Amino acid sequence: MEEEPTMIKCLVWDLDNTLWQGTLSEDGDVHLADEIRDVIATLDSRGILQAVASKNDHDLAWARLEELGVARYFVLPMIGWGPKSSSVRRIADELRFALDTIAFVDDQPAERAEVAFHLPQVRCYQQDQVPMLVNLPEFSPSRLTVDARNRRRMYQANFRRAAEQAEFRGPDREFLRSLDLVVEVTRAGDEELTRVEELTLRTSQMNATGVHYSEAVLRELLSDPDHELLVTTMADRFGPHGAVGVLLLERHPAVWHLKLLATSCRVVSFGAGSVLLNWLIDQASRASVHLVADFRHTKRNRMMDIAYRFAGFDNQSCGCRAGVPAAAAPDIQRLHLMPDRRDPADTVRLIAPDLAAVPAR
């Protein structure tokens, strides 16, 4: 069976005689072909970010991109006179993308060779290949979530957010309050299943078990009245963060079993994990049940272990465990908590269902 290619997460464009026709410093009046405009829009709709690495005057080139109506599609325009390999590397670093998920397109063989020499993991394409990029497997994700379609906007919002935080003078807590953060917890439906599956697959540092749930398994859980499959989204005054957390809970009469908690690493600094845990603990307290949480150590999820311990989970034995089926694997720990009432965080506005109002069977 042929191995699937590593998907491209960001395409870096040269400008002169690549993205547009002509050389800006010589012609001034450069043109954007309709087929190139279509490629830009299609890749954006697929959640593939786009950036620029061009040897040009920054202000003139950016103004021309705005005149052509495509400036909004580019998250990191590196326009100057340095080596393009340096620009591509900086783009990958700022996006925190592996180099083998970056692509570069340029009409000049020497520029492609320079990037390939210094960054051999980056995939380089000729200008005449651009119209066909949308047909290549590495640019064609098998499924698209709502978050994927909004990925560019979320990254742009994050850059604006980070810039304001760098200028903010005051405690971190005050900055969080200034964001007008809204965390919403909702029961997953058919539309959210791919987002939930993606979170279980992509999240490793803040994943309590490292278990990946396929869409088929998640769909079965949706129809099981004993399970709650919850998805968490976050937004603030800069824009949406998208789906940032998933929680899988099996409810028994005397104990709630937290099978999975995973939150995106990009919202760790906003306290999304602790907000979710405190809300769940408060709900369990209202329902007069104990909490048991699955946890399995992986190479990357120590932060989740700390989050559970900080919330009050421990390894003490309790008779409530008798109501929970044995763990699926021997390396899964069962952490226990006797819930108490918890006040909501004062840095976010939480919108969530009342789980305590629905009795377990």
3D architecture notes:
- This protein has 361 residues and is of the alpha/beta class.
- The protein has two domains: 10-142, HAD superfamily/HAD-like (Rossmann fold); 172-357, Aminopeptidase.
- Helix content is 33%, strand content 22%.
- It has twelve helices and twelve strands.
- The chain has a seven-stranded mixed beta sheet with strand order 11-10-9-8-7-6-12, with helices on both faces.
- Helix 11 (272-287) links the parallel strand 9 (255-263) and strand 10 (290-295).
- Helix 4 (84-95) packs across helix 5 (109-118) and helix 11 (272-287) runs parallel beside helix 12 (302-311).
- The longest helix is centred in the middle third of the chain and has 17 residues, at 151-167.
- The protein is elongated, with a radius of gyration of 24 Å.
- The two termini are 45 Å apart.
- The model has no long low-confidence stretch (mean pLDDT 88).
Question: What is the general shape?
Answer: elongated
Number of domain units = 2
Beta strand %:
15-25%
Instruction: Give unreliable regions as ranges.
Output: none
Calculate the terminal CA-CA distance, rounded to whole Å.
Answer: 45 Å
SS field, number of helical segments: 12
* Helix/strand/pairing category: alpha/beta
Strand order of the largest sheet: 11-10-9-8-7-6-12
> Any idea what the radius of gyration is?
24 Å
Instruction: Kindly state the number of beta strands.
Output: 12
Helix content: 25-40%
Instruction: Tell me which CATH architecture of the largest domain applies here.
Output: 3-Layer(aba) Sandwich
Query: Order of helices and strands, N to C?
Result: EHHEHEHEHEHHHEHHEEEHEHEE
